[in-house]
Amino acid sequence: MKVTMKIALVALISWASVAAGSAQAQELWNGVALGMTPREVLRVLPGAQATSDPSNKASFGELLVAMPGVDVFDHSGRAEFYFERNRLTTVRLFVEPQDLTQQSNQMVIEKIQAELGRPPECVLMMMLCSWRLPTRTVAFSAGGLEPPSALGVEYTGPSRARAR
User: Fold this and answer.
1) Nearest residue to 80 via CA among 71, 93, 89, 70
2) DSSP assignment of 110-121, as one string?
3) First-residue to last-residue Cα distance in the chain
4) From CA 56, how far away is CA 42, in angstroms rounded?
5) Which of 6, 66, 105, 135 has the most CB atoms less than 10 A away?
6) Which segments of 1-63 does DSSP mark as H helices, in order?
């Protein structure tokens, strides 16, 4: 009986350490991990602010935390944090329109590629690229080029399938 309890305890400890490792591996952006609560995100990112606009709901969650003045690949921008059932599912980064240039799209793509490699899914004519990694999915999208109008990078959990 004692041997069975010890085996069960060892199995439980092993499972807990694997689960903790998996949670750490699912960092989405800048120390913020998939599944965090809004309070945890606010604690990790002191410049972030809680938001409570009920109209800020999207198909991938509710905007509950935002952070202005964020460096988005050497551009001035903002971060938005989306939650489902009070758990973080998506981080979206946006470059402020006044900071966009003709070269912004290419610069951001190159910086993401330096970290993640060439995107397996990319339609450069439409400025849509995505990297589906074991621990997260990273998507890049940009608006018009003449003049540059929008640029965003989105971090979600692994293999997040949804309509864009």
Assistant:
1) 93
2) HHHHHHH-S-SE
3) 54
4) 18
5) 105
6) 2-25, 38-44
